[in-house]
């Protein structure tokens, strides 16, 4: 991940916190760009991961997403000088043992309120979303697709330990059981009209009671969480001297061969997926080759 960060912005150095000011990607949301390195592809072609998604969705023929890395900078006790080599590890608190000046960076915190769905709940339950289309944007792939009766899932691999202070994932637990009741509330009719052209992303109204019904999910390195896309979720801000780093991975039903853009998707997979993974049975399956 650091290789990607340093390649996007040549002024950023992993061993010098003074250069971390202008982080690439959507730093206000804790999102980096697409995860395309060897480790990221290997994580996607994990047989155990496919098995879990398959058992929940009830299908074996699943594709894996090409989603983002997620990274949050530390916001507490950040050194004002370069770090010793042994400190340049994401699992180590960057200020521990540092003898120079430590600074808090509150302006590096991510947005605190953006509870959302990666679909439009009004269109989703009325089955008015779009059928699967691949338009060259892997990040939005299958977001907001038409409800086909199968569970719609998202997932995230935690790369370093994340306590409630380190920034992380929060969700409204159990909301998928109440989503129909929620969208039928009369006072949401205007909100629905205002978002009828937003099939892939809708924020929860800022004054909705569920804003206060969220639960933070601490995770260990290597933990993987899967949630229903019907559940509102977001990242919450980092308030510690540690990095938070994750990889987003989801799986979904493979579309038909004649689905819009699917042949183009295949060509991109052949171009970017490491050759040795293309030759494995799990690689052929989840990358759609």
UniProtKB/TrEMBL annotation:
- Please indicate which superkingdom the organism of origin belongs to: Eukaryota
Q: Which Gene3D superfamilies match?
A: q2cbj1_9rhob like domain
What InterPro entries does UniProt report for this protein, alphabetically?
Phytyl_CoA_dOase-like (IPR008775)
Protein's name according to its UniProt entry: Uncharacterized protein
